[in-house]
Amino acid sequence: MPKINRPRRGSLAYSPRKRAKSPIPKYQSWPIYEGAPILQGFAGYKVGMTHVIMVDDHKDSPTEGKEIMIPVSVIEIPAMKVAAVRAYSRDTYGKHALTEVWADQLDDVLERRITMPKNYSPDAAKKALTDAISAGKVAELYALMYTQPVTLSGVPKKVPDIMEIKVAGGTIEKQFEFIAGLLGKEVNLNNVIQIGSYADITAITTGKGTQGAVKRWGIMLRKRKHSRGGKERHVGTLGPWNPHHVRWQVPQIGQLGFQQRTEFNKRILKIGENGKEITPAGGFIHYGVLNSPYVLVKGSIPGPIKRLIRIRPAVRQGEHVIRKPTIQHVSVQSKQG
Description:
8% helix; six-stranded antiparallel beta sheet; mainly beta
């Protein structure tokens, strides 16, 4: 009798599959950059999908130079504000928060998210951070930036989302001079990434609650003879009797969705200022009309409508020529069916 052999059902790469701690994704790594100081991230809110007609500019493609249809995801990207700069030191145990410098004037809506500092002296904080940089204690600088969902009509929230975004390029002194000049000011996506370049898109996926092994891991349904008692959706075996232990690799019931996922190397096709020019008739389903700046990203991205989306320059993309896309048409046909 031949031996039955097949790959296991479902990838173990994302285990344990538990719920994300926060709907705001977090980055553990950033791209290497050696130019002038810049910010290495941005954030927006997912709107939906549409399609564009553009000229295929991929070299050696079968349709090179011809017009093709490309599905795109739409992200609304109102300007973000820089609230503070945070310095980190580094030792053999990793990096540790050292000190912070906050902007002189902050929006009152930020009080809905964090406890605002009181009896705070920006000059004293800047001097402390400058002294730490001079002493060589600062290894990395991050900007504390927050979104402005209150300016959007499609996102029913006013509370801003605050996050860390790395400052890269140049020396630590130049990085601090750069980010200190942006404290309390607005930053746009154009200051972070170029049209035609590649980016990593990160979001918390759609939560589906507790699901069984068939939907969660993709295992096969059991045959009628082996599934008596209504157990056709159960896993065939939990493992051997000895050792008397269920291994973590065995497909079982548990949380599905609401987990952080990153789509690598997604091409930025367009960054626009007026969202109404791409709003379809009747608005985007479950979102409505765009009024703020937007970005079109090739392909699909994680997360449901209105979910916070973080954008970072690609970390896995080697040297490449940035080709500016030639978009002929953006579909504004109604998505209502």
